[in-house]
Amino acid sequence: MLLNIKFEYPEVEQVTLPEGFRYYVCPETARRMASVTTILDATGDKTGLLEWKARVGPVRAKQESEYATSIGSLMHEHVEAVIEGRDRPSAKTPPRILASKMADQIIQHGLCHVSEVWGVETRLYVPGLYAGTSDLIGVYKGQPAIMDHKSSKKIKKKADIVDYRDQMSAYVIAMNEKYGTEIKTAVIFMATRDEKFTAIEFDVDDVHAGKASFLDRFETFMKDPPSILGE
User: Fold this and answer.
1) CB 23 within 8 A of CB 41
2) Please, what are the domains in the chain?
3) How far apart are alpha carbons 210 and 162 in whole angstroms?
4) Is the dihedral of CA 215, 221, 223, 229 positive or negative?
């Protein structure tokens, strides 16, 4: 895997408010731009999530959400360390051991197909509109692609992760517009807590559909944008 940072990515300030709203500051205009994940969260179908919270109760729901976020963050640290040729974090506590094993699945079964890395944890944005952070940009199975690492309780199917498709497609738009690339595909590397792995590949048609869906959702979001974006 060749680490070849092909572009000079500008610093983009990220701000996360206490209530969870995240925005970025456009380097060219200093305008605040909502994050891709914030846009998707605001425009997504929360029926299943609300039913789960009602079923398990608010305390357990909060605990499980925080645990999942922690495991995901730790897993990302391991994967990024390997990509960048750094020492991996220690794995001595149960959550860290679990995150390390999940990262192993991505490293062994996902990164083996990545021949070139153009960016890691890269801030991507469409000036003045929206921004986000891509886990990995590079060449996957011979094709330039946007890639993301996801932790999960169980393996999910493509039909179950429309938000992920739209997220990746938003990054494709930003990358292509900003740097003149011709990325047409995206991949989710998904590892589960029982050490299973899948690579969910979004082809040209998937990404095309994801672009249209994200732009529709962005338009819906901006019909009544949070006041913080206009300050």
Assistant:
1) no
2) 2-223 (3.90.320)
3) 8
4) negative
pTM: 0.93
pLDDT tens for each residue of 82-138: 999 999 998 889 999 999 999 999 999 999 999 999 999 999 999 989 999 999 999
CA 204/CA 97 separation, integer angstroms: 37
Find how far residue 91's CA is from the centre of its chain.
24
- Rounded CA-CA distance 7/36 in Å is 21
* Share of the chain residues as helix, strand and coil, in percent rounded to the nearest 5: 45, 25, 25
Q: How far apart are CA 102 and CA 31, in angstroms?
A: 38
Chain length of the chain: 231
Strands (E), 59-178: 114-126, 130-140, 143-152
Helix (H, G, I), strand (E, B) or coil at 39: helix
